[in-house]
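Anyone? Bumping this.
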Amino acid sequence: MLRLLHSACSGQYLPDSGKEPMSTLLSALQQERVAMLKAWIANLQTAIQLNDLLSQRELDAQAADVLNALLSVDPETRLQDFGSVVWRPLKDVVSSISVSRATLGFTPSETALFILSLKPVLFEQIRKRWGAESDKLFAEISVVDTFVDKLGLVTTESFIKGREQVIVHQQEDMLELSTPVVTLWDGIVALPLIGTLDSARTQVVMETLLQAIVSTNSRIAIIDITGVATVDTLVAQHLLKTITAARLMGAECILSGIRPQIAQTIVHLGINLQEITTKAKLSDAFRVALEKTNRRVVRVDKAGTVVTAAKQEPAKDA
Amino acid sequence: MTGATVLQAETVAIATSNDVVVVRQRVRALALQVGLSLVDQTKIVTAASELGRNTLEHGLGGQVEVSLVTNGPRRGIRLSFQDTGPGIADLELALRDGYTSAKGMGLGLSGSKRLMHEFAIDSTLGKGTTVTVTRWK
Ligand SMILES: Nc1ncnc2c1ncn2[C@@H]1O[C@H](COP(=O)(O)OP(=O)(O)OP(=O)(O)O)[C@@H](O)[C@H]1O
Ligand SMILES: [Mg+2]
């Protein structure tokens, strides 16, 4: 990082970095496109581990894309103007490659190495041209060094974005997988919710429950939110709407799995759940559901005689 | 809001509803780092979710600055949600429980205020809105 900052600064002190020199470098490089691609691909072979997710052919094609984006700008463009719109296409190419690396499970360093391994290739071109003029050589190398470092940072930033997308998708997948409507008993269904609830998928999940109520002809539906990390107003609104819709269809909903921290937060938010039957645990909700359908769980001894109703807790002071 | 020192800060863009998920994840990670209790973590993550969604839906996108702050021996988390959306014409109305200009519950803004220790809102019509909240350990 220090080195990077240093070279970024030194670029500003270079004599006549303002006008003529870069155009000669870029136009010189443009002549050497093919040789440079070959050299870069050779470097990449040691830098990047190929696997069945990234073939040699893809890697070559990506290198060619980056090099083309770098060399197809107007030769008057300066490498120092990294923020210029002219470099947008190059950054876009680099960024989309990095995002795809993240999705394929590459490490951040492997991803950055892809771009950083371009450095020796560019340095070699500079050496070939200005090897005899040490001032010029140093000036050009500095500029290229800074440029490639900045491009390397683009890979890292995009890589992080890519990872975030992966995580979000995993959560969405999880939500999709984890919303089966299960029949607990004849006429009693349950929907255990897990994950993030405010995606577009919530709507689908809730509709699935309403359909299951119809298809199983259930009178009671238990919605269990033990696995839901955050209950905010949007989630609450979805839950309340579903519960109202179920009621219209003649089914009663019980909301279970309300953990203490969620209960406290809901109260502070000002959400009113008083109209709704709520239970801390799914098992409590199930017991209520049985009662509401005129059933009861009892304990029996070996002979099958009722010992106690499971519902009654033994007296504490007995 | 005065006297606090920022120890560490990061900015998260809010442009899609997935970004709101990312905001929640970042805030939760920082809450864990600060050592907030489970209840406090849940409160601050929920407030972040509400304000992040307001930035997205009413502010038409923006960003949040998530920072770790100290004030003497106290450590806390400060969240500053910024957008360049339409702004809020009547702050008092917007903060009223149950008021919504969309089809929400109208509890996000007022609820977040109750969930946090400090709450400041700055809004200019046609320019945008900034909501800054802090919760101390
Ligand atoms: N960043 C913002 N920019 C513009 N208007 C806003 C912003 N944040 C809140 N508002 C206004 O304040 C109102 C109240 O916000 P609040 O979050 O309390 O309710 P809501 O978003 O409508 O519903 P919900 O309860 O689902 O959050 C909003 O309906 C909107 O008109
Ligand atoms: Mg809101």
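Late reply, but here is one note on the structure posted above: The domain at 2-172 of chain A is CATH 1.10.490 (Globin-like).
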